[in-house]
Amino acid sequence: MSNQIRKHIISWDQLHRDCRALTHELLALDKKWDGIIAITRGGMIPAGIIAREMGIRVVDTISVRTYSHQEISEPQVLNDVTATTDGDGFLLIDDLVDTGKTAKFVRERLPNAYFATVYAKPEGRPLVDNFITEVPQETWIYFPWDLELDYVKPISKHADE
Q1: pLDDT, tens digit, for every residue of 120-137?
Q2: Torsion, CA 57, CA 63, CA 64, CA 69, rounded to 10
Q3: Catalytic, out of 13, 60, 80, 98
Q4: Residue 98 known to be catalytic
Q5: 95 labelled catalytic
Q6: What confidence tens digit (pLDDT) does each residue in 43-77 have?
Q7: Exposed, middle or buried: residue 121 (CB in 10 Å: 0-12, 13-18, 19+)?
Q8: pTM of the prediction?
Q9: Exactly one of 13, 80, 86, 94 is catalytic; which is it?
Q10: Is 88 noted as a catalytic residue in this protein?
């Protein structure tokens, strides 16, 4: 297998469908949740969608920095959750579990939360309780909040002739 980084582009529509699919799985657990904790920043939009679909009004956040752009560093809490001390009764939501560095850190901070992500890569997948779509480890996911629409040149250099 090649070590080349692949691109996986997620549209707003796809993200919404995937969040709703995750919501169906969470509802199937037939549990009453006290609230949602979004891992910021990526988990905020999925958490908002899931909170709406599940009728959950308490949404808290935990902000952890483990990388800046593509440089990985030690986890650092920038803003801690206040709604719970251990996560009991709460859904912990993120957009993606990648290497698992953030997931492991937050899992230790909130050991009793039910951890769900929309997307999962193989290295981080064992750290979450639920996810919707698995993508290969060497894939870079582009979320809709990171993109803008722009012209793309045709693949063939003769296409513009």
Answers
A1: 999 999 999 999 999 999
A2: 110
A3: 98
A4: yes
A5: yes
A6: 999 999 999 999 999 999 999 987 666 666 788 89
A7: buried
A8: 0.87
A9: 94
A10: no
